[in-house]
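Design request, tokens follow.
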């Protein structure tokens, strides 16, 4: 089976697991958040992986870096939504801390990827 370039990213499996966590956690949110915060968090999480996938398909490093920056921005959007979730008491502090740690780790790796891409321009 062919492995696409985005699947070769050293943090891809961590990102995939993180997206699953977001889906699992948001299943517990109140029903009235289904089309609000739940939908937005899921879209943000998917946007991180989608932008990385699209970026790795580009031939120019500048384009790749651009999509890595979008992925980082989506991750920061998601972090903001995780904070709101804690403030609204939809998640516990333990869940928040675990999610935040994963966001910090992924953000470092996405930034490192972007910097690497920019150095190759």
């Amino acid at each position: 089976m062919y492995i696409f370039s985005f699947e070769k990213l050293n943090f891809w499996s961590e990102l995939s697991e993180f997206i699953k966590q977001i889906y699992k956690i948001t299943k517990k949110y109140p029903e009235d958040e289904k089309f609000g915060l739940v939908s937005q968090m899921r879209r943000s999480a998917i946007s991180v992986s989608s932008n990385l996938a699209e970026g790795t398909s580009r031939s120019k490093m500048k384009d790749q870096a651009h999509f890595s920056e979008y992925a980082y921005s989506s991750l920061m959007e998601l972090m903001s939504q995780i904070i709101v979730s804690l403030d609204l008491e939809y998640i516990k502090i333990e869940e928040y801390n675990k999610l935040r740690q994963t966001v910090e780790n992924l953000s470092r790796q996405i930034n490192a990827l972007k910097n690497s891409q920019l150095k190759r321009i």
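Comment from the thread starter after seeing the answer: thanks! The two ends are 31 Å apart (CA to CA).
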